[in-house]
Write a structure and sequence with these properties.
The protein is built from eleven helices and ten strands. A hairpin with a 3-residue loop joins strand 6 and strand 7 (about 140). With about 260 residues, the chain is of the alpha/beta class. The strands form three sheets. Strands 3-2-1-10 form a four-stranded parallel sheet. A four-stranded mixed sheet has the order 4-5-9-8. It has a two-stranded antiparallel sheet with strand order 6-7. The protein is globular and about 50 Å long.
C-alpha cells in the first residue's frame, strides 16, 4: 500500500535563510503553482494522495482546496501559520479546515514534523497523527529510538514517515531530489516488501522552478531537480509502483484499518 502526502503550506523556506519574504503573497503563489503541478501528475496517473494543509493555505487558496477534494484526495490539517506554529493550532487548524470544506478532517501533521502534544491531538478528535520522521537528520530530527512503523499512542494512530529498515535512511522529499532515481526506487521497494506499505511526503514549492530564482537563496539540495524535474521524478515513482501492482490510498482509510489491527 502506498501513501503519498504533500505538506501544503505557504512557502516560507527563504525566511530560514535570511530572506525578507512575504509568505502570504509570494509564498502562497509559489505553493499554489506547485500544488497544481502535483495534482496534474496525480490525475494523469489516476492515484489519490493526502494533502496536509495549513489554515493559511485553506483560507488563501479555496479554489485549489476545492480541486483537491473534487479529484478524490484527502485534506488533513497542518497547523495554521507554518512559520509561527502555536499550541492552539492543533484544534484551530481543524476548525478552519472543517468550516471551509464542510468535512471532518481526521488527520494532523505538525509543521516541519516537529513534536506536538499527543493529548492535544487526542482531544481535538483526530484519528491519526503523522508528525514523526523516525530518522536521524542533523539539526532537524533525532528519533532513532522511536518506532519506525505505525503504533497507537493516547488513543491516536501514529503514522511515521517511512525509513529503511536497518539504518533508518529517510525516504522523504530530499531523498527523491538528490539520490539517483534508480536507488531511491530500490529502497522504496525494499520498504514496501519489509513493512507492507510506504509513507512519504513532499511540498508544493519543490515543484516550483526554484533554480530560476537565486534571490530566494535556496540550498543546492533543495534546488536540485526542483520544478518540472520534480514533477517528472514523482511521475516516474508512481508509474514504477503501479507497474509492480501496488495500490495507492489516502491516510484515513489506511488508518481506520490499522486501528482495527492494533486494537
Amino acid at each position: 500500500m502506498i501513501l503519498l502526502s504533500f505538506d501544503t503550506e505557504e512557502f516560507d523556506v527563504p525566511r530560514e535563510h535570511g530572506v525578507d519574504y512575504d509568505t502570504l503573497k509570494e509564498g502562497m503563489a509559489v505553493s499554489v503553482e506547485g500544488t497544481r503541478r502535483i495534482l496534474d501528475v496525480l490525475k494523469d496517473n489516476g492515484v489519490c494522495a493526502t494533502f496536509f494543509c495549513t489554515g493559511n493555505f485553506v483560507q488563501h487558496a479555496p479554489d485549489i482546496i476545492r480541486r483537491i477534494i473534487s479529484e478524490g484526495h484527502e485534506v488533513a490539517c497542518h497547523g495554521v501559520d507554518h512559520w509561527q506554529p502555536k499550541e492552539t493550532d492543533v484544534s484551530e487548524s481543524k476548525r478552519i479546515l472543517d468550516e471551509a470544506t464542510g468535512l471532518s478532517s481526521r488527520g494532523y501533521r505538525q509543521p516541519r514534523m516537529f513534536p506536538v502534544s499527543d493529548e492535544a491531538i487526542r482531544d481535538a478528535g483526530y484519528l491519526y497523527n503523522s508528525s514523526l520522521n523516525p530518522a536521524f537528520i542533523p539539526g532537524r530530527y533525532m528519533h532513532l529510538t522511536d518506532p519506525r512503523t505505525c503504533f497507537m499512542k493516547e488513543g491516536v494512530l501514529q503514522i511515521p514517515a517511512s525509513v529503511t529498515p536497518w539504518i533508518r535512511f529517510p525516504l522523504f522529499w530530499l531523498s527523491l531530489h538528490n539520490l539517483p532515481q534508480w536507488l531511491y526506487h530500490y529502497m522504496v521497494r525494499r520498504v514496501v516488501k519489509h513493512d507492507g506499505y510506504f509513507v512519504t511526503y513532499f511540498h508544493p514549492w519543490e515543484f516550483y522552478d526554484l533554480k530560476e530564482h537565486p534571490e530566494l537563496k535556496m540550498p543546492f539540495i533543495i534546488r536540485n531537480h526542483s520544478g518540472r524535474q520534480m514533477s517528472e521524478r514523482l511521475d516516474r515513482l508512481i508509474k514504477m509502483l503501479k507497474q509492480r501492482g501496488h495500490q495507492f490510498t489516502t491516510f484515513t482509510p489506511f488508518a481506520e484499518e490499522k486501528v482495527k489491527q492494533l486494537s
